[in-house]
Amino acid sequence: MPFTALRGFRDYPPPEAGARSEIRRRMRAAARRAGYSELEGPCVESFELYQTKSGEGIAAETWLFRDKGERPVALVPETTPSLARIFVDRAKSEPLPVKWFTISKIWRYEEPQAGRTREFLQFNLDILGVPGVEAEADLLSTAALVLDEVGAGGLYAFRLNDRALAEGIGLLFGAQDVGRFFRAVDRFHKIPPAEFEGEVAQAGVSPDAAAELAVLFSKAGAGVPPAEVERFLQEIEGRGLAEAGRAGIVRLRRLFSLLERARLGDRVVYDPTVVRGLAYYTSTVFEAYSRSGDGRALFGGGRYDHLIELFEGPATPAAGLAIGDQTLELLLKGAGRWPDGEPPLDSYVVVNDPERIPDAIELVQELRHAGTSADCDLLGRSMSRQLREAARRRARRALILGLKEAGPGAIVERDLTTGVQREIPRKGAARPG
Questions:
Q1: 326 in a structural domain
Q2: CB burial readout 412-424, b (16+ within 10 A) else e
Q3: Are residues 366 and 304 in the same domain?
Q4: Most CB atoms within 10 A, among 50, 120, 286, 369?
């Protein structure tokens, strides 16, 4: 029986692996342009690290095992705990703010489906040491730069909210169990209105208040654009929000103002139903969605001001986001914007006689050492097959050795886009054309 990849895992042969590598290259370049430095952690950590952040329940979705010392360890299911551990170790000497990015393999024991595998790559951006929403503005503007660089420009939008405001809305409508209220709100767009009203009722909201809350969320639709955010926030504020809820409104106003200045007003909306399920988010939360409306989040993030303290570090404000490769791939492929794969070759060296393969290898090495991508045939194939191979590899040019029409010390250069040929000095072949 032939071997296959395990369920929830994928192979990426060429040219797919090359396309994914190109996506990562663009993401790294964009993050560095925004002043982020790359962080790399191990792929196995103590399981206690994840228990500290997420509790015992994390075991159900973690690749958990015991090492040879009988210590419980796990394949990394997320990078934030590793980031926190590393920061705590360096906190006394690390100048603030810290702006780090990671591109890491992640393993989660979840049910595979479209856009979700058990092993995937995740791109993270994190800022530590900035207490104001300037951090969120930088994260979102950098995320926009990253998404635009990989080819997703125009395909996505950001949905913003503040958990203190969301909690304040819940209290206004009578919620007594905030956690259950948040879980119901998170499902608002995924379930029928009657089911939503039933779920918030379990959080302590009366039937009349539940129906009124559903109307309020429905008015927000798929998100309130910047031009209408102030009116919407004033309506909520006018209902008599508690102080924490009003503080959430202040943060959102400031954040929308900063994002307008960052020229992101065309891709941000306020969505009162975005609450993010993770308990460690402390105020602002946000998600990116495809504009096509398929409902799947491209990434999520927010502010987690108490996480560093969980790992016995100093009180440090922090915010971050994570972009998974699977949903991003679906978005780009659906729009016909996935990269072709490996970059095209610059030069493919062709010979008219297999006896000249050593000459081709020599020239290829000269080209490579001169900084040019180059290759040649190693199978002794005919010239026509070599030229077809050059075209398949999307080479810019073919350098043909041994043609009789070439003068002494010269070779033939063929432009593989136009088909135009010219004679060039053999010694000059390694110089840029």
A1: yes
A2: bbbebeeeebeeb
A3: no
A4: 286
